[in-house]
Design brief:
Layout lengths: L1 H33 L7 H24 L3 H24 L10
Helix pairs in contact: 1-2, 2-3
Length: 102
């Protein structure tokens, strides 16, 4: 019975991750309809979707595997920091790496 509860919670969290990623990706999609300032192509949506999904799945993995509260918090911070640094590099090339296309 306990195993079934764990599966249900994991399935619910995975569903929430997918919904949140879809909602975040809908923001630039909607913005493109109203302004010429936002110009995303299919590749942009694919890359951002992969980045958001990998972040969500990494957080899900930490939730499943790490029980210590402090270690869990540190890992969440590291995962989110990596997300924001990669996002900033892809968006504006803040570090000037070839990764951003500069």
């Amino acid at each position: 019975m306990e195993n079934q509860k764990t599966i249900n919670h994991s399935t619910q969290r995975m569903t929430i991750i997918l919904i949140v990623v879809a909602l975040i990706l809908s923001i630039p999609l909607i913005a493109m309809q109203f302004t010429n300032e936002v110009k995303w192509g299919l590749f942009d949506f694919v890359v951002m979707g992969a980045l958001l999904l990998s972040t969500g799945f990494a957080i899900e993995l930490v939730i499943r595997k790490v029980k210590a509260g402090t270690l869990r918090t540190v890992l969440f911070f590291i995962i989110l920091l990596a997300l924001f640094l990669i996002w900033a590099e892809l968006a504006v090339g803040i570090f000037g790496t070839p990764f951003a296309g500069s």
